[in-house]
Amino acid sequence: METTGAPNDGLLQHPWRPVAIDGCQLLAKSCFGETRYHILLTDLHCVWEETMHSAAIQSRAQELNKRLQAPVKAFFSHLCEVVRPCLSGSRQPPEGEANISVMRLDGGNLSLRLKSKLAGLPLHWEFRCTPAPVTVVCLHLVQPLLSMSHTLQQEVEQLEGLLVSKDAEIQDYKENGATLSRARLQTEIFERHTYRGSFLAKTLAVVCSDHHSVKNFGVDLQELYTAVVAHGSMRKRKLSEQDELVTTVVDATTSSDADRGEADSEQNQTSPVAEAGDHIVRTATTQQLATCGLAERAPSKAKKKKAVGLFR
């Protein structure tokens, strides 16, 4: 009933969002369709995944709710209404409306258990997440985070260069007699290595905490994640289109060469017959010409005979 690693479902375009479920700090990303969903969860020690489609959702709903008579679309609409805000980190369900608990199972699996009500009747659901394949982890987490890190590094280097230029500009003003009207605006000259050492000493102990990393994947990082993924997807799409174009040209060239080869082969196969026909035609023509020549020469010889006249 469950499948993992469903491609091209739009989940990659969704950023990771910090969520707190049943006291667990997680990063989550989810994509809900009309009657399908794909979710990823991580506590930075493991990544879990589940993908479900209409038939599997209907089967599990019947398994967990024996009295359920609602069609899968109505059931799933209610499920999305309750769960989607929780997995997006926007809000928790109001007290008494729904309850979501987290269970770590044997084999490294993770279960999110939902208790709610639909049309006044108890409603149960379970997200049965399994450890995600390495390819999924790399696609949704490792590759984007490395690209984000490189992007932020480039930004920091440009800002450092800008600060150095500003210091040089201020120093030029001072050397030409300019003074600050307010002493509180006085700043020290920016020294890159000194600043970086001080910054790392103050912040590493805080940002290396797992809970801190989960909680502080904020809006700015989410936007950067989305931009990095969108750029990567566009680049892959262009490369794919170029590969398809090259493949089409190669196939067309190969087909043309094959057709030309077949034509040459047919021509080579029929040439002995054609040569034999030409030989027969040439032979017949030669014989006809020879016969005509003999016929023409016979009257001419008759004309050369001396006529018997009165005088000899």
TrEMBL record:
Residues 15-130 form the XLF-like N-terminal domain. The keyword Isomerase does not apply. GO terms for cellular component: DNA ligase IV complex. Keywords: DNA damage, DNA repair, DNA-binding, Nucleus. Residues 133-181 form the XLF-like coiled-coil region domain. It comes from the Eukaryota. InterPro entries: NHEJ_factor (IPR052287), XLF-like_CC (IPR053829), XLF-like_N (IPR015381), XRCC4-like_N_sf (IPR038051). The keyword DNA repair applies. GO terms for biological process: double-strand break repair via nonhomologous end joining. Gene3D superfamilies: DNA double-strand break repair and VJ recombination XRCC4, N-terminal, Helix hairpin bin. Residues 252-278 are annotated as: Disordered. It is found in: Nucleus. Its main location: nucleus. One of its GO terms (molecular function) is DNA end binding. Coiled coil: none annotated. Belongs to the XRCC4-XLF family. XLF subfamily. This is Non-homologous end-joining factor 1. The lineage of its organism: Eukaryota, Metazoa, Chordata, Craniata, Vertebrata.
